[in-house]
Putative rhamnogalacturonate lyase C
Amino acid sequence: MVSSGSRAAIQAQLDWLRAQPHRYKVVVCGNHDSFFDPEARLEADSESTDTLDLSGIVYLQREAVTLKFDGGRKLVVFGAPDLPCLGGDNNAFQYHPPDAPWAGLVPLETDILKSHLDLGLGCPSLLREVWRTRPRLHVFGHVHWGAGREAVFFDAAQQSYEALMALPPRGLLWDLVPNRSWLLMAQTILQGINGFVFRWLMLGSAGSSGSLMVNAAQMYGDTGRMENKPQVVYL
């Protein structure tokens, strides 16, 4: 939410959110929001007894909330701020990869998953948890240059694509030599065509097992300017 991580800066942002007209304001903190993590707080905040006013805000820290809407509709939102170590003790909720908290953490009934880590950084534990729970929407941030959205499908084509992207770089010349990436690329294309033809065309949208990934970062790159457009999603 903020860059400095101080209690005062976070409170100002919470006050702004509270003033917005939306019924629910669901918050997951980022690595710069140091005050939320006692182990990462700034020295001035660690010596203070001041707290945050979270009234009107749904703050999630490894927990779920059920949002109720008119007509009896409900959405289950699960949020967790954890992310792999970035270096620097003032980054909140860091973990060492062997101690990743994600396994079995997200409830199966989750409709919306809110985390801070962008999948593009590559946390295998979080990726496995997304595959296990398959939320309809996963909202994150952290990588400002990656702001935007992308539809993904939990099928063989997606598995092949992820395996392809996980391969270490070989270089342009080595990529011209037959290797495993050729096979994975062919599998991704063929399995993608198969998934489209036999699921979408034959079963329609009801046959889709997809999810929407949204990087909702507001800062434009590392410029410090809030220039990215807000992401609006209809579920």
Notes: The chain has a mean pLDDT of 87. The chain has two domains: 1-153+211-235, 155-208. Helices lie at 7-18, 43-46, 124-133, 156-165, 172-175, 180-203. The beta strands are 26-27, 58-59, 63-68, 74-80, 83-84, 94-95, 112-115, 137-140, 148-153, 210-215.
